[in-house]
Design a protein that fits this description.
This protein is an alpha+beta fold. The protein contains 21 helices and 26 strands. A hairpin with a 2-residue loop joins strand 11 and strand 12. Helix 11 runs antiparallel to helix 12.
Length: about 725
């Protein structure tokens, strides 16, 4: 039997691994009932013997002593206790019991929380979406890091539902109106019959990929809930294998990079690939073929990887490399930061370097970027937890600039070995995409970009398996040194630095671009790319301080492409009214070939803004174009000030709708000064169509947007509002 390893997952009820093989003729199910994962316990030999004796009274498959490599980069062997539980479910339970018997300090446990699908494919020497043959075991006929590889034809179907409710807000208690499966609509008055017909049609259509919108947060919990309500849950099978329906992971709110976010439960379909297109960041950024490529190199099946973050994929690849090297993976990593004095903290904890942008309008500006700078630093300078401040090379000649940390000279670290092929792979896909030599190359390049972006952040993340704050500090130290040195080289070639941020420089001058790029690349040892030359570019000031903003600008390249960062048109919370008005103003400036023409086009751009202000005053704007978006940071009772979030939460509570911290709310402002929730705004799903919106507030938003674009030309919000008011008079 030959085919592609389409899906892999553990069956906890029957203690076996299930694989689905996509062949030329269909899909086949393969069951492995002989796979039993183990875990390791390390500690004092006396204490390990106590655990061995205790396990004699517990149902386990096997307990034995082994010698294993436990430290990254070291070949030293340690005595460990290998424990093979009787069932898959017992693995976490037994590990927790042993940890508690050691008072959470006497034992270090390994290989406890690795995904079984990932671990199984690694130990079998295969990977998801690999082409292989099955005789008695897997015979790999594919190469994991191949650039050009075949994938099977995957049938896809979209799925959605309409409910019968008293408002536009969907509730789990609402009955089903109709269900969409591809181009067919299942409808009727009897919910039970509709659910059974859906399951039947799913079996007849037999799609490989099921695409939903909010499938994890609403569609699947709703349908399974209705099936339970109608007593047809056992017959309601949407996967290729019947299973007890429960989310793979419960929903939760969490804090990340200064924001509260919400991750909904994750629902999977056995033997298929379910992708929630509204909830999968990786799918939104790369599409199905990017997910498949990532599944291949991370050893996480496509359906699972679609529901994870780029950082989790990076962590999985690090785990894979450690396992290949013969190192078990530590559970509950406990690696404290090295002690530092206050002076050392000031030197080490600086982050990336930024040249403050020169606010204003500039002409003929060159932008150059370092290719994946921080990941390239990790590879180029061997930055990894076991190499920075290693025990074997205290007198190493490899020193981190400014900080002085020594870096190992004897071994290449885990992280460089993981990232090096990823960097090379992305460069190949970028070239193929640019040359249009492979149809899906851009999707594959885009998904690898996010892996590389997250690889840096994970070195300083306290919960990362292979994170270490000294690595994080070393990377930023090298980054600062590189940017400063690059600016110095640019000055030697006759260029002035207008702006610089971590891995990019904006330069103005009459020097030779190619010689500059070759000089910087050769000196630093990391490739530099020419992003392009701007006909004109506008660097914007901060909203609260009179200094240049780090990442707010817009400009026009010589090839006619516009690049915008940090302005309203790029923000997710901006309403369509403001976005459309701003893009029309930018279209006016796009006609300018020089700074002189840009300034000449300012009156025309203001006319565009005036047109939109007039439409707002005449109430000639669709309510859909006025919808604003805000993220909820806490529960209703935790807010102490009445604001838009509180008004929206009050409305939703009255509709029996629960909103978790981290979720977003969408609404239209009716009277922004009102202290009554229903008068202040209307939640988008409750709009009836006849509401009168707050015209002055939306005009204020338009004027604020105009200020964003024109502030460097002395057009502040007050001046713009005055011009719009003159028109009214």
């Amino acid at each position: 039997m030959r085919g592609w390893l389409f899906d892999v997952y553990p069956d906890y009820d029957k203690n076996r691994m299930v694989c689905w093989l996509k062949t030329e003729s269909g899909v086949d199910k393969i069951v492995d009932a002989d796979y039993f994962p183990n875990f390791y316990v390390h500690g004092e030999k006396r204490r390990l013997k106590e655990i061995e004796d205790w396990l004699g009274s517990v149902p386990v498959r096997d307990v034995s002593f082994e010698r294993r490599k436990l430290r990254l980069g070291s070949q030293e062997l340690f005595d460990v206790l290998s424990v093979t539980p009787a069932t898959y479910s017992d693995l976490r339970y037994l590990a927790g019991e042993i940890d508690s018997r050691g008072r959470y300090r006497d034992f270090t446990l390994y290989n406890v929380d690795i995904r079984l699908s990932q671990r199984y494919t690694m130990e079998k020497g295969v990977f998801p979406m690999a082409f292989l043959e099955i005789v008695r075991d897997f015979i790999l006929l594919d190469e994991q890091w191949a650039i050009h590889y075949d994938i099977p034809r995957l049938s896809q179907v979209e799925m959605g539902v309409r409910v019968r409710g008293r408002s536009k807000i969907k509730r789990f208690s609402d009955s089903i109106h109709s269900i969409k499966l591809g181009d067919r609509i299942v409808r009727g008055r009897d919910e039970r019959e509709m659910l059974l017909e859906l399951a039947q049609r799913m079996g007849m259509v037999d799609p490989d990929v099921v695409l939903t919108r909010n499938g994890d947060s609403f569609l699947f919990p709703y349908l399974y809930g209705r099936a339970a309500e109608n007593d047809v849950l056992e017959e309601f099978q949407l996967g290729r294998e019947a299973s007890l329906v429960s989310p793979r992971r419960e929903g939760k709110s969490y804090f990340s990079y200064g924001r509260i976010l919400y991750r909904p439960p994750k629902y999977t379909l056995r033997g298929r690939i379910h992708i929630d297109t509204g909830g999968s960041f990786l799918h939104m950024e790369s599409g199905l073929y990017g997910l498949i490529d990532l599944a291949r190199i991370s050893n996480i099946p496509p359906q699972e990887i679609a529901k994870l973050s780029p950082g989790t994929a990076v962590s999985a690849m690090q785990v894979n490399q450690a396992m290949r090297d013969g190192h078990p993976v530590m559970w509950k990593k406990n690696l404290p930061e090295e002690f530092k004095t206050a002076k050392e903290l000031l030197v080490c904890d600086k982050g990336g370097f930024i040249f403050e942008p020169k606010v204003g309008l500039h002409e003929n500006v060159l932008e150059i970027d370092f290719t994946s700078l921080y990941p390239s630093i990790m590879v180029r300078f061997n930055i990894s937890p076991e190499t920075v401040l290693c025990e074997c090379c205290p007198d190493s000649n490899h020193r981190v600039p400014e900080i002085g940390y020594h870096v190992c000279e004897k071994k290449i670290g885990l992280i460089p070995r993981v990232l090096s092929p990823v960097i090379r792979r992305r460069m190949v896909f970028k070239r193929l995409a640019k040359e249009k030599r492979e149809e899906r190359a851009k999707e594959k390049s885009d998904i690898l970009k996010w892996l590389l972006v997250c690889s840096f952040g994970y070195t300083g993340y306290r919960n990362a398996r292979y994170g270490k704050i000294e690595c994080h500090e070393s990377i930023t130290a090298y980054g600062r040194e590189i940017l400063l040195k690059s600016a110095e080289i640019a000055d030697q070639h006759g260029f002035e630095v207008l702006h610089g941020i971590v891995d990019s420089l904006w330069l103005k001058g009459e020097g030779d671009e190619q010689k500059l790029i070759e000089h910087v690349s050769g000196h630093i040892g990391i490739p530099v790319e020419r992003e392009g030359v701007y006909k004109w570019i506008v660097f914007l000031p901060c909203k609260t301080f009179d200094v240049g903003a780090m990442n707010r600008y817009y400009g026009m390249f010589e090839d006619g492409k516009m690049k915008i960062r940090g302005i309203e048109a790029r923000r997710h919370d901006t309403c369509e009214l403001v976005k459309r008005a701003q893009m029309e103003m930018l279209d006016v400036f796009a006609k300018a070939e020089s700074v002189k023409e840009f300034k000449e086009n300012v009156p025309e751009a203001l006319e565009v803004l005036r047109k939109w202000v007039k439409r707002v005053r005449k109430e000639d704007i669709d309510l859909e174009d006025l919808i604003l978006t805000l993220r909820i940071s806490k529960s209703l009772k935790e807010y102490s000030v009445f604001n838009n979030q509180v008004a929206a939460l009050i409305q939703l509570k009255e509709e029996d709708v629960e909103v978790h911290p981290g979720e977003v709310i969408r609404f239209v402002l009716l009277d922004s000064e009102s202290k009554i929730a229903d008068e202040r705004l209307r939640v988008a799903d409750l709009l009836e169509g006849g509401e009168t919106y707050d015209k002055e507030k939306y005009i204020e938003l338009l004027c604020r947007m105009g200020e964003t674009l024109l502030q460097p030309l002395d057009y502040n919000r007050k001046r713009i509002a005055g011009l719009m008011a003159e028109d009214q008079a």
